Prior knowledge:
The structure holds two protein chains of two kinds.
Chain A: H1 3-12, E1 27-31, H2 37-50, E2 67-70, E3 81-82, E4 87-93, E5 98-102, E6 107-110, E7 116-118
Antiparallel strand pairs in A: 1-4, 1-7, 2-4, 4-5, 5-6
Chain B: E1 2-4, E2 57-58, E3 75-76, H1 79-93, H2 111-117, E4 135-138, H3 139-145, E5 151-153, E6 156-162, E7 168-174, E8 183-184, E9 187-188, E10 195-199, E11 202-203, H4 211-221, E12 228-234, E13 240-246, E14 248-250, E15 257-263, E16 266-272, H5 281-295, E17 297-303, E18 310-311, H6 312-323, H7 325-328, E19 332-337, E20 356-357, E21 380-385, H8 392-401, E22 406-411, E23 419-420, E24 424-426, E25 429-432, E26 436-439, E27 451-453, E28 462-464, E29 466-468, H9 483-494, H10 502-505, E30 508-509, H11 524-533, E31 536-537
Parallel strand pairs in B: 2-3, 16-17, 17-21, 21-22, 22-29, 27-28
Antiparallel strand pairs in B: 1-4, 4-25, 5-14, 6-7, 8-9, 10-11, 10-12, 12-13, 15-16, 19-20, 19-26, 23-26, 24-25, 30-31
Amino acid sequence: MTRDLLAVLCATGLLAGGCQSTAGTPEPALLIQGDGPAMEQLMAALEKDLGRRVIDLGPSDPTLSPVISVLPVPSGPLNDRNTALPTVFRLEFDGQICSLFREETGLRITLAGVKCRAAFSH
Amino acid sequence: MLKRSGFALVGALLLVLAGCGGGGGGSSGGGAVVTPPPSGPTWTRGVFQSASTFENRCAAPRTGADSQGRAFPDQAGSLAQELFWLRSWTNQTYLWNTEVVDQNPSGFTDRLAYFNVLKTNAATASGQPKDRFHFTVNTAEYLAQVTSAPTVGYGAEIRVFSSTPPRDVRVIFTTPGTPATVLENGRPKLERGARILNVDGIDLVNGGATQGEINTLNNGLFPIDVANHAFVLRYADGTERPVMLSADALVEAPVNRQSVITTPTGKVGYILLNTFSPYSTEKGLADAIAAMKTQGVSDVVLDLRYNGGGLLAIASQLSYMVAGPARTNGHVFERLRFNAAAGASNPVTGAANSPTPYYSTGVGFSVPNGTALSTLDLPRVFVLSTSSTCSASESVINGLRGVDVEVILIGSTSCGKPFGFYPEDNCGQTYFSVQFQGVNDKGFGDYPDGFTPSNSSSANAVKVTGCAVADDFSHDLGDTNEAMLSAALGFRANGTCPLPPATSIGVARVRDTGEPIRTTGRSQAVEILRSMRDLSMPDRGARP
């Protein structure tokens, strides 16, 4: 059994008893499913944190990369020296709970019920 | 409704045919006449309350939500509160706040008129206004044009060189893969330099006698709906022919074209980049540089002649990819200099005033955050410029000079906008007021009269090694025979500029005094900003 598979099983609760060692230590994570309720919940969390009802994600796929970038509101050609940057979040998993961590502010948003797995094997 | 201050519109860029009645959205109350209530704020010269005291206190509050779904923050207020907000906001955030004459808002009955006096009246060394970039636009219009959605067009940039009969309207560049470049009898329908003679049966050069004809011309030149339009063109080689063009919904291409030119002394990369604004520019440039690295280019030509700027981070990435880590490590691309009262903070955001680094990775616009960027590691770069080369484009020139990468400038004087702003909405009007100056790693950012090639006759612009060369509309962009690219390659080969000297082929600076007439599909706001920058026209004698 690979560690990735172990992480998936942990995330889905199939091996709940054997996953306690990483609890409390958030690590970069990936969504297990990139569509449906998990993605809706992710987007809802981003909307709430950023105070926007329109969220456009950058190029990363949260099932493949723990880094999630949210594009800034378009500013158009009038803003010809535009300092805008995407807002970067990191998807993290502590063995039990999946969360979004915004490095810029240090804010952590819990994604209750969203299934994710550690991005990297030890 | 869009207004501007300082000087008259440049008609050459606004082909609003006489009598067409103007356009571009209605006023949001900018002209409303309201007598400030006796109980309103009171003015004491030099004493300013926080702008937040008056923020969103509106004479005519909006209801509903903006394009991002956010409820408008407007509350019932008064014109006086809007004017006091402008006054305090200017005092807090305007770069030259100490040069603004503090005027009592009670003397004004129009918020736009008051905004127009909230700027410096000083001049640059050349005598032009120090602040040429003070303008405002109705927020609804502003929001409508910031969308990244496709817009209807042919895939060609059309520019007006003469707005009054005999009119001169030409194709400046085309975008590959668009209706403009569809082949007809083996030739693209539109080509750079082609003069448009007739649109949907109306003589563009001398016609337009009736409002109906004017509308036909405007609708054909700058369509807003997907439709076919009939043109008669005279190409740069003198050939005339009719073509049928299909206007379609198009997304702006980030990198218009790129190529690798083989020379006896190595390969030269060429990139035509007309904007830093679309988020896809990040990936477009990363891919272009990666390809050039693979092909082993030893020099690169950045064609920024029509690049009016955009995202500073992407300008930084491009500069990094040209210069490489050894030249940029430990240096900043650009620092923002705010007014003195701001101290170490950004007075607009309230955050620490952090410089823009040389980004060595994707930042997440269209390249995943953290993805390493390819580098060419070049000690020099050729930049093609005109007066349309502006703002973030000039940051590339200035930023690279700040880390001692040699910039060789070919073309004409850049626009001279080392400044930037954060568009600010208050009560339905979005204000653009210069709030910062960008300076490079050496602390230099004083180029309000632009950068100019070293042999140009421009007296006040910052001289940069290179050649003054007029824009050449008789060849396509990227063609090695096109005058500016040819001059870059020639300078690279032998260190000399082309003959005849620039003084005889220089760009004539012309202000069209004719009736401003619309000929672009852009919003008025975009055209106003462009007109502030671009006063140049090609040498009339050189055109067919």
